[in-house]
């Protein structure tokens, strides 16, 4: 490499270091020999990811800025209503915002498709919605296996990004889809209304119990973390008029 007029090498002229020099784990010094082995119970569970590609679609719901709960109801009603013409036996998973994943492609045009969905409203008045579905990209779980085994470098993990082609985001949406439909999601946790127990706090508040769920890549595998959590919510109070 030739230096500049002053003898200095221009900044940024060096080639990037080889991949093995970016990160190299230190070798294990040895195996423990003192004490006795014991079994531990952990709140981490191994997740087996199939080696396949999944299809990512962008979902646009109008009117906009509806709560995630309403968006999920709209998408669920859409899947049921257009089961024969579009979805068939496919069971898409939805993140409540703009990302929808399927294991097989949907028969929609490259420019997308507009669908009309109606939800029952209060007082017998229906609530109309217009849903646009458009294909975005293939998401490779093959690449995820390559990353977990150290044969590829991972992309930045942004679970809160509306549209993400990161395969970990797809796994997270798959594992959160059913709990989001069955329980009350708050942040990254899920809660259920008290049934068979009562924990009032006074002032019209009570305790709800639930669980926190988080999926993260670990050494050579994906792991699902489950933690018990509780939250203070307003209690349902019957009022006589």
Give an account of the 3D structure.
- Strands 1, 7, 8, 9, 10 and 11 form a six-stranded antiparallel β-sheet that branches.
- The termini are far apart.
- By secondary structure, the protein is of the alpha+beta class.
- It has helices at residues 19-22, 68-81, 83-87, 141-148, 167-182, and strands at 44-47, 53-62, 93-94, 99-102, 113-119, 127-140, 184-186, 189-191, 200-202, 205-218, 221-234.
- A hairpin with a 2-residue loop joins strand 7 (184-186) and strand 8 (189-191).
> Could you tell me the radius of gyration in angstroms?
25 Å
User: What percentage of the residues does DSSP assign to strands (E)?
Assistant: 25-35%
> Looking at the structure, what is the overall shape?
flat
Task: Sketch the topology as an H/E string, one letter per element.
Answer: HEEHHEEEEHHEEEEE
* Uncertain parts: none
SS content category: alpha+beta
The biggest beta sheet, please? 6 strands, antiparallel
Share of helix, binned:
10-25%
DSSP E strands, number = 11
Count of alpha/pi helices: 5
pLDDT averaged over residues: 83
């Amino acid at each position: 490499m030739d230096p500049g007029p002053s003898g200095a090498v221009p900044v940024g002229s060096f080639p990037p270091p080889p991949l093995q020099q970016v990160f190299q784990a230190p070798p294990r010094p040895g195996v423990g020999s003192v004490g006795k082995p014991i079994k531990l119970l952990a709140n981490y569970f191994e997740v087996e990811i199939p080696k396949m590609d999944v299809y990512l679609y962008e979902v646009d719901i109008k009117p906009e800025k509806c709560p995630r709960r309403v968006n999920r109801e709209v998408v669920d009603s859409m899947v049921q209503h257009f089961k024969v013409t579009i979805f068939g036996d496919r069971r898409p998973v939805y993140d409540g915002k703009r990302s929808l994943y399927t294991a097989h492609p949907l028969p929609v045009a490259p420019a997308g498709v507009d669908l009309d969905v109606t939800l029952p409203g209060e007082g017998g008045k229906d609530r109309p919605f217009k849903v646009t579905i458009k294909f975005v990209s293939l998401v490779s779980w093959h690449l995820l296996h390559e990353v977990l085994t150290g044969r590829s470098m991972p992309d930045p993990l942004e679970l809160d990004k509306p549209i993400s082609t990161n395969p970990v985001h797809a796994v997270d949406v798959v594992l959160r889809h059913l709990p989001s439909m069955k329980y009350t999601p708050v942040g990254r946790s899920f809660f259920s209304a008290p049934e068979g127990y009562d924990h009032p706090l006074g002032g019209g508040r009570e305790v709800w119990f639930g669980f926190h769920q988080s999926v993260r890549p670990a050494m050579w595998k994906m792991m699902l973390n489950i933690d018990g959590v509780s939250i203070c919510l307003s209690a349902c109070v019957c009022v006589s008029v």
